[in-house]
Amino acid sequence: MTASEKYIAFQTILIKEVMRFMRIWMQTILPPVITTSLYFVIFGSLIGSQIGDMEGYKYMDYIVPGLILMAIITNSYSNVVSSFYSAKYQNHIQEMLVAPLPSYIILCGFVAGGVARGLVVGIAVTLVSLFFSDLNIAHYGITIAIALLTAILFSLAGLVNGIYANSFDDISIVPTFILTPLTYLGGIFYSISMLPEFWQSVSLANPILYMVNGFRYGILGSSDITPFASFGLILLFIAGLSLFALWLLNTGKGTRS
């Protein structure tokens, strides 16, 4: 395939993915915005007013970065896992696999679709947060880079889950039993400096802690983790998952019988 043909193939997959979640925006965009708004009301306004400041910031201002990133994580992941598994379930993923289309184009197309949904939801949640918090972004470059890289990382994770999934139950196991607990324990609602020393060490093994704190550093200008550690960990996971996903697509694991 020529470079122009590869670009057209990538563009086609991306447009299909974007149209898929935009066509059903009441199921894909609106629910996470409403759910996060409830977090702002309950944890930020009602409970937060009783908690006081956290690390020198109003509690509402402190949790806003984590809640925005949580929306990006869950939506970039769920978009790719549901889309890829649906393609398997409806037996039209084979059309892509038998076409003279490099696996990395398929990978980039699905990941770009997941990134698009994650960022659309993230922007919508950010706009809602302006009703609750005076959002002053300290480092625009770091904020945008962490959001983009995190969306790429969880889109890749969603693709790997979609490849291995054999039923609709399988695509909900990882989000329910792994992703959600790690997200809630990732420092969205608290600083790890509040924890006993043992649990601080345990928390440092949670990769989402680094992403939340990297994003918080971009918006507030301070966090529990240095932004260098956040970028390093995210890039490492992206490289590993990209190679693994490409290997799965090239060998046909989970897609060819």
* Major β-sheet annotation: 2 strands, antiparallel
Radius of gyration equals 19 Å
Silhouette? elongated
Structural class: mainly alpha
Instruction: Quote the beta fraction.
Output: under 5%
Spell out the helices and strands N to C.
HHHEEHHHHHHHH
Helix coverage percent: over 70%
Poorly predicted ranges: none
- Helical stretch count? 11
**Count of distinct strands:** 2
Would you tell me the overall average pLDDT?
88
From the N-terminal CA to the C-terminal CA, the straight-line distance is 26 Å
List the strand order in the largest sheet: 1-2
Features:
single chain, 257 residues, mainly alpha, two-stranded antiparallel ribbon, 11 helices, 2 strands
Description:
Strands 1-2 form a two-stranded antiparallel sheet. The protein has helices at residues 3-23, 25-28, 30-51, 59-89, 93-98, 103-129, 140-164, 170-184, 197-203, 207-220, 227-251; strands at 53-54, 57-58. It starts with a helix and ends in a 6-residue tail after the last helix. The chain is built from eleven helices and two strands; from the N terminus they run H-H-H-E-E-H-H-H-H-H-H-H-H.
